[in-house]
Amino acid sequence: AAKAAGRNTFRFYDEAMNRRARLRLSFEADLRRAAARGQLELFYQPQLRGDDGALVGAEALLRWRHPERGLVSPLEFIPVAEEAGIIAELGEWALREAARQIADWRRRGVAVPRVAVNLSARQFHAPDLVERVTRILAEAEVPSAWIELEITESTAMQDPAGAVRMLQRLREHGLEVAMDDFGTGHSSLGMLRTLPIDVLKLDRSFVQHLPASGTDAAVATAVVTLARQLGLAVVAEGVETPAQRAFLADLGCDRLQGFLFARPLPAAEVEAWLLRHRGDAGSGSRAGRAPIL
Ligand code: C2E
Ligand code: MG
Ligand code: MG
Ligand code: MG
User: Fold this and answer.
1) What is the pLDDT of residue 21?
2) Nearest atom within ligand 1 for CA of residue 239
3) Nearest ligand, CA of residue 150?
4) pTM, whole model, 2 decimals?
5) Ion ligand 3 — residues with CB under 5 Å?
6) How many CB atoms lie within 10 A of CB 170?
7) Does the keyword Coiled coil apply (predicted)?
8) CA-CA distance, 16 to 282, in Å (whole number)?
9) Ligand closest in space to the Cα of 239
10) pLDDT band at 75 (very low <50, low <70, confident <90, very high)
11) Judging by beta carbons within 10 Å of its beta carbon (0-12, 13-18, 19+), is residue 166 exposed, middle or buried?
12) In the predicted model, what is the mean pLDDT of residues 236-257?
């Protein structure tokens, strides 16, 4: 009986694994066709200036509207796209779409100063990245100052010397780069000195327990201080409470991003949000100054 049970267990795992592998394959095949079928979408999450709450930009975040699964999170499909070797195409689509969107906004007088676009490691390390990006921006008639690129610490650390060269070339074309999820990777503080980046994004995990956590308060303070000394702008991600906002604004955090202000929104909803935001950007501790929109 034990032997039979063992065999059944084995068969069970076998089938479960097969099922998972098949699901994964169909997921991958779906993903390959998603862009062509118009199922990919960019959502935009506003970034506010720390001191007066004015809109300073928005981060573009990929969404997949799957016909059966609904809205699929990038945390689920970006790793699949990476494994399937189609992340570069997805990323390129995202950049083209973000450029098209900001051009459209600006043409219609919707005051979004800048859009940040996430780059995968593979995209960033592609030798022709600069050509690809500048071509996309030229086609959309978007000046480089309207686009900020985000790379993660681990992307840079895959090849630090190559990253320095790539960042220099991007900078020559007026493209600013933000270091995303700062503090979660393995870069040394010394690397920050040599990497020609413009913006540091303090990871959500350091924001989450502010201001109550003394350790996190110390880390946030140190990062903001260091960034200022190095001449980098700081963006805090994952700001969810007024107390976090007040703490980070008092620290001198240049930009704030988080559910407190807005979740990532479809482009049309960003416009509606902006109209509402116009009314209350100046409220809070630093009321009185006119929001620049
Ligand atoms: P990320 O670049 O660090 O983006 C910030 C993530 O934090 C977003 O998740 C956003 O929805 C979430 N977030 C923002 N504010 C808050 C908050 O107050 N509380 C909480 N709990 N979460 C907040 P999302 O949209 O699910 O994206 C996840 C990750 O997927 C991104 O992290 C980025 O690494 C990746 N991703 C998204 N779009 C792209 C893309 O176009 N290309 C590449 N390569 N990666 C992308
Ligand atoms: Mg990002
Ligand atoms: Mg981030
Ligand atoms: Mg993050």
Assistant:
1) 78
2) 18
3) 2
4) 0.90
5) 180-181, 237
6) 24
7) yes
8) 55
9) 1
10) very high
11) buried
12) 97
